[in-house]
Amino acid sequence: MMFAVIKTGGKQYKVAEDDIVDVEKLDAEEGADVTFDQVLMVGDTLGQPTVAGATVTGRVERQFRDKKIIVFKKKRRQNYRRKAGHRQSLTRVRITGIAG
């Protein structure tokens, strides 16, 4: 089974065909095709830093926001407490092809 390692949104993902991955938000509509050209590895071929001419294509399934995480900071005995929440915007992509 062919797999690849791609880089997007500052993170690396190991993907294979028909995989579903949640990546940092991409500027693409639902149903649109996206191409990842920062391919770090395809099968046994390791890039330096990327594999020349290799691409991974996918289709955007949906845009959504992840569950909320709570960021809580405290310094004991200093009466210092800060509470903030964060919801990351994500894009769900189904990998349709690996070329290269």
From TrEMBL:
GO terms for molecular function: rRNA binding; structural constituent of ribosome. Pfam families: Ribosomal_L21p. SUPFAM superfamilies: L21p-like. One of its GO terms (cellular component) is ribosome. Keywords: Ribonucleoprotein, Ribosomal protein, RNA-binding, rRNA-binding. One of its GO terms (biological process) is translation. This protein binds to 23S rRNA in the presence of protein L20. PANTHER family: 50S RIBOSOMAL PROTEIN L21, LARGE RIBOSOMAL SUBUNIT PROTEIN BL21M. NCBIfam families: L21. Belongs to the bacterial ribosomal protein bL21 family. Part of the 50S ribosomal subunit. Contacts protein L20. This is Large ribosomal subunit protein bL21. It comes from Roseospira visakhapatnamensis. The gene is rplU.
